[in-house]
Amino acid sequence: MKNLIVLFLLLPTIIYSQDNTIELPKDTVPSNILYDNDLLPAEFFKKNREALRQLLPNNSVAIFFTNPIRNRSNDVDYEYHQDPNFYYLTGLTEPHAVILIFKEEQRFNNFTTDEIIFLQDKDLKNEMWTGKRLGVKGVLTLGIKKAMKNTDFLSFESDLKDFDKIFTYNIREDIINHADNGDLFGLIQSFHLKSQKLTNTDKEELAYMMAKLREVKKAEEILLMRKAITMTCDAQIELMKALKPSMTEYQSEAIVEYVFKKNGAEYPGFPSIMGGGENSCIIHYTSNRKKLKGNDLLVSDIGAEYHGYTADVTRTIPVDGHFSEEEKIIYKLVLKAQQAGIDSSKAGNKFWEPHNAATKIITEGLLELGIIEKSYHVQRYFMHGTSHYLGLDVHDAGLYGTLQPGNVITVEPGIYIPEGSECDPKWWNIGIRIEDDILITEIGPENLSAKAPRTIEAIEALMKEDSSFE
Ligand code: GLY
Ligand code: MN
User: Fold this and answer.
1) Cβ atoms of residues 322 and 296 within 8 Å
2) What is the tens place of the pLDDT at every residue in 166-206?
3) Catalytic-labelled residue, pool 19, 250, 395, 400
4) Which of 333, 338, 374, 367 has the alpha carbon at shortest distance from 355?
5) What pLDDT sits at residue 62?
6) Among 166, 176, 296, 335, which is least packed, fewest CB within 10 Å?
7) Are the C-beta atoms of 139 and 22 separated by less than 8 Å?
8) Is the pTM of this model over 0.85?
9) 316 versus 195: which is more confidently predicted?
10) Is position 215 annotated as part of the catalytic site?
11) Long-range contacts of 279-285 (CB under 8 A, 24+ apart)
């Protein structure tokens, strides 16, 4: 009896299953899968592979490699981030893997399959350093039909020359050898060995196929995007309440990233842009070291990443809580341009229509204010696009053709007038960008980031409220 109890206690508790046909002992499950209960289900990734198969021509195979681990310096690597296409097709967040997705079922010596992943297997000694791995058995819970160890890829029998097309994309040639033929370096070298004499490879088409799939978000993706965007709006709101002249750009950054993490974001989806005063005119400013002054404007361009999906919301905030007369004039112009952009974010419109609508308003406004003399001078002060797709990447994959329901795009016009510009100095150092995340629906645009105030009155009113960050 005593022995039976001991045996019972030693049996691992089986609690986890993404694909409910397979169950894994709790102590073998990677931590993200173990602790998060709103991850995308295996079915989502399976459907994505199926959708890709529909786009593949007959007798072809698509091959995807994971992102490399990048070294920061000496013993420290950058935090690992999966390649978005690999994630979209598998859900795997681990490095050192390759997946082959075949158009048709393939017959091998001992099995038939239309997909096979080669990945790092479980290794308890290594897992004590870098975390739990799914391994060859565990990866089947993500719904992938066949898995083998990454060290078996080199000797795997598939004859690539028999395919009409082998599609790859973005193979990295600048990565380090981790001294094991199953690491990413080894997988890529093995692929080159297998394909070096072949003329049936294609490195272009696959990126388009993936963009076609990824630009239309499914309901479960929109749910995660709503979470990422809501926590980003909450971060802008807390920043507006807390901001005051004694603060620095990095303290503003600390507040927004605190709100991200407090709400469960894994990390920011891109380095937070906190440009105050003259830095508001630097479009991708990220050093964030300046001490702010009362009459500075602060461009806060931020996005939380939640389960792979990132938000991207910009607000321009007066550090002392009040826009000056000149700032109000430029702010209203950018806001009017943004609203015109949002209004033309409609299914059936060309991707560039929101940009054209916003540019028209800004051009007319700057001419009227005497800030520019010729229409084409608008590029001096508004030098970027108004929109990009948003999703697993902040500048997400998409075809930039016609807008359709399920697209999520940003609408983010701006005006930046650095010191020394050819206009009245009263406009100098005004940099303003207003950015929202827009879902294209059958019945018009939905502003997913409407929660963060964007009118002058609403921002100034919110800035009067008490903050819990002191
Ligand atoms: N959030 C930065 C960008 O859209 O480029
Ligand atoms: Mn953006």
Assistant:
1) no
2) 999 989 888 888 767 789 999 999 999 999 889 999 999 99
3) 395
4) 338
5) 98
6) 176
7) no
8) yes
9) 316
10) no
11) 279/249, 279/431, 280/316, 280/416, 280/429, 280/430, 280/431, 280/432, 281/416, 281/417, 281/418, 281/429, 281/430, 281/431, 282/416, 282/431, 283/383, 283/384, 283/414, 283/416, 283/433
Task: Quickly list DSSP for 120-165.
Answer: PPP-HHHHHHH----HHHHGGGGT-S-EEEGGGTTT----GGGSSE
Residue 20 has what pLDDT?
A: 53
**β-strand 71-73 against 76-77: which pairing, if any?**
antiparallel
Q: Strand, coil or helix: what is 309? A: strand
CB atoms within 10 A of CB 55: 17
Q: Where are the domains of the chain?
A: 2-213, 217-462
Asked if 319 and 295 count as a contact pair (C-beta separation under 8 A), the reply is yes
pLDDT, tens digit, 9 for 90 and up, residues 359-381: 999 999 999 999 999 999 999 99
Annotated catalytic, 395?
yes
Task: Give ligand 1 pocket residues (Cβ under 6 A).
Answer: 270, 301, 312, 394
CATH number of 217-462: 3.90.230.10
Residue 214 annotated to the active site: no
Residue 22 pLDDT = 65
CA atoms within 13 A on the CB side of 439: 19
Q: Which residue among 253, 285, 313, 395 is best mutated to probe the pocket of ligand 1, counting the most ligand atoms within 8 A of its Cβ?
A: 395
Looking at the DSSP bridge assignments, the partners of residue 148 are 118
pLDDT mean over 145-167: 93
Instruction: Choose which residue among 412, 436, 449 to substitute to test ligand 1 binding: the one with the highest number of ligand atoms within 8 A of its C-beta.
Output: 412
Secondary structure class of 291 (helix, strand, coil) = strand
Q: Whole-number mean pLDDT of the chain?
A: 93
Structure tokens at 282: 């630097």
CATH code for the part of the protein at 2-213: 3.40.350.10
CA distance 275 to 327: 15
396 is catalytic: no
Cα separation, 36 vs 264, whole angstroms:
10
* DSSP string covering 336-351: HHHHHHHHT--TTSBT
Are both 2-213 and 217-462 of the same fold?
A: no
